[in-house]
Automatic annotation (TrEMBL):
This is BIG2 domain-containing protein. Residues 39-68, 215-242 are annotated as: Disordered. It comes from Roseburia faecis. It holds the Pfam family Ig_NUP210_5th. InterPro entries: Big_2, Invasin/intimin_cell_adhesion. SMART domains: BID_2. Residues 67-138 form the BIG2 domain.
Length: 242
């Protein structure tokens, strides 16, 4: 503005001695805005607009990353018989699933399927993303103590599936000839049967041949009685003829 002017300006506008002042001082002196500086809209309203501070409301972004659940495995300890397999499954976690075995000679694994290969212990490990779980595997190699038995009907013979901690299911091909209870053979008559020991689908067999010595003794007694009867009959005939 100038000391004697009637307008206030944004910069030196025309001739005169301009000096800086505040808008409130210019308005207090009754000065009006210069149309060259402020245009037809007027300086006061424009100045008010320019002096108004606009505060934008900031919205905090929510974390849209999905929550990853903990990884879990269906079994952490299993006992298998050589040749047996077991399927392991996992839940939770995120990412690509990979399986591995600490001893492939004992137990191998592919896509969660564990196959028992040899006696011993192995650790099956599954990884999914940054998480991992493991399962301890024990492999047994049971053996039947007898694969063939010859016995008399009055004998007692026991079968045993050695090296097996599982429950064994015993069966006989003919219970009328010979039954089996907890591996103990119970013969009833002469004949041949096959006794099986079964564990989780694996089967061990024993051929059992049974003879009955009491039948031979009985037949001998019958033969003796028959001979004696024949002799007596002849004697009667002789006596009758006499």
């Amino acid at each position: 503005m100038t000391p004697t002017g009637s307008k206030y300006h944004t910069h030196k506008c025309g001739r005169g001695n301009f000096y800086q002042t505040t808008l409130s001082n210019a308005l207090a002196r009754g000065l009006t805005p210069c149309k060259k500086c402020f245009g037809s809209s007027g300086g006061y309203s424009q100045t008010r607009k320019s002096s108004t501070t606009t505060t934008k409301k900031t919205t905090k972004k929510k974390n849209t990353r999905p929550k990853i659940s903990p990884l879990s495995i269906s079994s952490t300890k299993i006992v298998l018989v050589k040749g047996q397999s077991r399927k392991l499954t996992v839940k939770g976690g995120a990412g690509i699933v990979s399986w591995g075995s600490s001893n492939t000679a004992v137990a191998g694994v592919s896509a969660g399927k564990v196959v028992a290969k040899g006696k011993g212990k192995a650790t099956i490990t599954v990884k999914k993303g940054t998480q991992k779980k493991s399962c301890q595997v024990t492999v047994e190699t049971p053996e039947l103590n007898k694969t063939a038995v010859e016995m008399d009907v009055e004998d007692t013979v026991s079968l045993d599936l050695k090296g097996c901690s599982h429950d064994v299911q015993w069966t006989s091909s003919d219970d009328d000839i010979c039954e089996v209870e907890d591996g103990i053979l119970i013969p009833y008559s002469s004949g041949t049967v096959t006794v099986k020991a079964k564990v989780h689908g694996m089967v061990w067999k024993c051929k059992v041949v049974i003879t009955d010595s009491t039948e031979d003794d009985w037949n001998d007694d019958l033969d003796d009685d028959s001979e004696n009867a024949d002799d007596g009959y002849m004697d009667d005939e002789v006596d009758a003829a006499a």
